[in-house]
What does this fold into?
Amino acid sequence: MNKTNKKIKMSSLTNNTEFSLVFIIVGLFIITSIFTDNFMTQYNMTNLMKQCAIVGVLAVAQTFIIITGGIDISCGAIAGLSCMVLAILQRDTELALPITLLAAILVGLVSGFVNGAIIYKFKIPPMIATLGTSTVVGGITKIISNALTVSGLDERILALGNATVLGIFPVLALIWILVAVVIFLVLRYTIFGRNIYILGSGENVAKLSGINVKKMYIATYTLAGLLYAVAGILLAARVQSALPTGGEGYEMNAIAAAVIGGASLSGGRGSMVGTVLGTILMILINNAGVQFGLNTHILEITSGVIILFAVAFDMYRNTRLANQK
It folds into this structure.
């Protein structure tokens, strides 16, 4: 009996997403450390954590969007627009830093609100709706910047990009971890968090549970917009400027990180711990590829394959769970 119980526990452990991710991350970390010269340098470790920060904040937002059964293609574009608004205001006006930050955050909030309202009001599938808003937001970013890079950021934002704790841990990464912890607590210990999971089981289930579906959609996407703006501010600090295409490409990595971390595209399942680990794995793979001298196009293909694998595995997992029922 004891041997049987041990086998069951071990099987459960190895099927756990977080355990699997930790195992892969540690293995890749060890291999890259042994066979490359610059991977374990302080500069590379700091750069690795900074890369995780921006994708990580976006992935946190994607996680609770995916838990509701949705998806948000516009996250990178909204982050890019928030970054650009921040840079233009700081370059061209005498507004105080808190006001420019508030303006950047307001851009994210309004964009997220619009996403939620469109998805609920017109019943447009989230992927299509946010693909449309992504294109619109991207166009706005290019118009207000004349498709040019904008520099002249406040010195305190520039300093944020280089700031570290104890000379090792970037402040940008610390902000990401704090965001993940806050959302973890919201999902686990608040009524709002519980309702997000219920909404992921279907609108009818949510309505039968007494949930105001309209408010939940709008609140969820608005909260996501807030986090996109935070990511945009971190992007400005890291790049030390604002690019007209600054947010492009981040959405796929963010979605992949959430799905790899266990968030189900069918809704109703996802965790912050898994998302954090999924983010680390995505960034670590790219960083390791650079250290091994792989062609950047090969790395793009690798990222695409990982995304396809994550989606395919999620579909397989959902099918298996459905068959078990």
Summary: The longest helix spans residues 296-324. The CA atoms of residues 162 and 241 lie 13 Å apart. The chain has 14 helices and two strands.
